[in-house]
Structures are given as structure tokens and as C-alpha cells.
Amino acid sequence: MNVAKSGYRVFSANSSVACTELAKKITDPDPVTDCDLILSITIETRVDVKESVRGQTIFIIQTIPRDVNTAIMELLVMAYALKTSCAKNIIGVIPYFPYSKQCKMRKRGSIVSKLLASMLAKAGKEMLCFFPVDNLRASPFLIQYIQEEIPDYRNAIIVAKSPSAAKRAQSYAERLRLGLAVIHGEAQCSESDMADGRHSPPCVRNTTGHTGLELPLMMAKEKPPITVVGDVGGRIAIIVDDIIDDVGDFVAAAEILKERGAYKIYIMATHGLLSADAPRLIEESAIDEVVVTNTVPHEVQKLQCPKIKTVDVSMILAEAIRRIHNGESMAYLFRNITVDD
């Protein structure tokens, strides 16, 4: 990737050492363009672009560490600085789009991912992120890891952590020619299930309404205890998901799978956020290995838990950058890959 002669440059935010390392892997053997990104005494972000970017296409690589909001401001300020330096196009390479889980209206909340996408577009004028335009897939790399690094993977079974994740698990199972199991129910009530006055139907009849209006009284929902639909006895259980952050559900699922006879348990996820005491919980659990990609920095977590392994996806990011700059079709990157992956 000849950055100097090709009319485009690759910048890396300095949110973490992992971001710089990922940028070097993507641009190898060419260097990453210099850009000073400084935090002032008041913790304000200041950007100094050291080289001329006039009329060029700029790619900004930004991973998202634990300090999510600081990383977002770094990206916004960098995009705006490059825009005011007369860059032709600004394209954000964001392996993990923050707030992506907040993409639906829940109760009295808001769709934060839409707000963030609007902010990025505003900062860079014509800034494109892979989230709204080209949502790249890590499944080929994870499937390759299963085939090459898990001994006797032919004796494995793909497990969906919940019915909502069944499509993703089914896609993995079909590609690997393996069986499929689904975990149903929950070990305990989650925070999202707590009453806030908006549950429907209400548990009791409301007698304060119109005297002539009496709606039928329905029983409140009750989630069944956690169970496994499918035979995992004597098999390697591979749980697949998109994000592993709060590991409580994964630990509970691993215990059930062990009870049902699975002799090894793997977790495969694209993004390893692994917040709070997730490394300790994984280390003390029945989980044998957690495999995530390098879309999110997790070096500290790996030091705390040797069970965490990393798969490099810089190759697909580098190819996406090359194709976008050359105006080539992105279809090759999605060949035989469905949205369920």
C-alpha cells in the first residue's frame, strides 16, 4: 500500500497502543501518516496534522478502548481537523462501532448509534463509516480458527446463547457442517426486565380509567429456567456471538453445557469488550477458551486471563481500504457471507 503516491493517506488515532499496532498491520509495509493528537491539561483534545492532505482521501483508523467517549472525541476532532485542512474525502475505519447495541428505542431511551453516526458525518462532511455503508464480517476468520486451532472440531456442536442468536449460530453450523443447539431461558432477571411503569400488559387491572372500559387481564410473562435444546453430550460446545462484554450469561451457559455433558466449551465473538471483572469470571468458569478479534483493544484482559485468544482481522480492513480508494466493488469481501454472519 503506497500511501505517498496513491493519493490517499492512513491516519491512526492514539486512543491506545493497540490502535497504532492495528494501523501498522493494515498499512504494512507502508508507514502510517503522522498526526499529533494531544490531550491538554483540561483533558481537551487537540489535533495537529503534520503533513499536507489537500485534495487527498484520508482513512482514519480508530479502535475503541475502555474510555469510549474520549475515543469518539478523538475521532470527531481528527475528522474535523482533516476536513478544515482541505482533505478530499474522509473515511472512518471503525472496527467496532461504539453504541451499536443502542440501535433501537427501548422504553424512554434513545437511539444513540444514530446520534453518533450523525455526529461523525457532520464532523467529516462526507465522512463514511463502515457501519452505515460497508459492515465487514469477521466470521471467515473465526471459522478458520475453529478449523485450524480446535482439535477434533468435527466432534463439535455450535451453540446459540439465546433464540435471538440462532440465525448467526445456524450460519456457522452450516458452513462447518456441524450440529446446532440453542440455549433457552435465563438464569436470572436482567436489568432490562426491571419494572419502569411501561410494561405491557400491566400485572393488575387499572380501575382508574373510563368506567365502561375493561380490558382483559393477562398473566405477566415469566421466563423459563435456562435449558439446552439439542444434544451436547460428549461434544465440544462452541458458543458464537457478536459481542462478549458482560460475561455472566456466557458463564451460566457454560455451566449448563457442562452439566449436559459437553467436555470442552469455546466462546467465539467478533468484539471482545470484556468489561469490569470479565477476565476473572472467565478464568474461574467452565469456559475453556474465549476467541475474539483485534477490533477492540484487550491486551490487559489477556494478561489477566490466559484463556482469551486473539484473531487478527487487519487483512480484511486493508483490502476494504484498497477497494474503496480504487473504486472497486466490495462484493468480493461479502462472497458467500450472509447478513446473519
Automatic annotation (TrEMBL):
The keyword Repeat does not apply. GO terms for biological process: 5-phosphoribose 1-diphosphate biosynthetic process; purine nucleotide biosynthetic process. Keywords: Nucleotide biosynthesis. CDD domains: PRTases_typeI. GO terms for molecular function: ATP binding; magnesium ion binding; ribose phosphate diphosphokinase activity. Pfam families: Pribosyl_synth, Pribosyltran_N. Residues 19-124 form the Ribose-phosphate pyrophosphokinase N-terminal domain. It comes from the Eukaryota. GO terms for cellular component: cytoplasm; ribose phosphate diphosphokinase complex. Seems to play a negative regulatory role in 5-phosphoribose 1-diphosphate synthesis. Belongs to the ribose-phosphate pyrophosphokinase family. This is Phosphoribosyl pyrophosphate synthetase associated protein 1. It comes from Cyclopterus lumpus.
